[in-house]
Amino acid sequence: MDGFYAAFLTGRGGNAIVLFVIKSTVLVGVDAGGLKYDGSVQPLPDGGYHFKLRYIVQPGTQLITGMGSVGTPTPIQLDFIAPSDFASGVIITIQTPLGPVNAKLTKLRDLDLPDRPPRPADG
Question: For 68-113, what is each residue's pLDDT tens digit?
Fold first, then answer.
């Protein structure tokens, strides 16, 4: 499951793309609007995954849920279940405290770190 992912999000108020990395059970991500996502992903016995995310919506941030912007920094916690094939482009509806969003998740590449850093090219 370790790798780089993209989440294509759609709500009543617009669209967004979140890029994130999963390493072991840790998830870290960012979107073009400046939101930073931190959380975890736990495998479930049935083959699905339990996602727990946290991010902070800043005042003036355009929300894709269609809700107006917040007046003060607002922490958001998300807790949702995704199917075992979540990274294959299936659509997942996520209920957020600010309204529902549909998410299409895609794995971009494995997180396959080399055993040692590459050597600089000889010039």
Answer: 889 999 999 999 999 999 999 999 999 999 999 999 999 999 998 7
So where are the chain's domains?
3-110
**Token pair for 98:** 């600010």
Task: Annotate 62-82 with DSSP letters as a single string.
Answer: PPTTSPPPPSS-EEEEEEEEE
Q: Is 73 exposed, middle or buried (0-12, 13-18, 19+ CB in 10 A)?
A: exposed
**Apex CA 80: angle with CA 90 and CA 71, to 5°?**
110
The model's pLDDT over 5-32, given as tens digits with 9 standing for 90+, comes to 999 999 999 999 999 999 999 999 999 8
- Hey, what CATH topology would domain 3-110 get? Glycoprotein, Type 4 Pilin (3.30.700)
Q: How far apart are CA 42 and CA 22, in angstroms?
A: 11
Angle at 7 between CA 4 and CA 13, to 5 degrees: 155
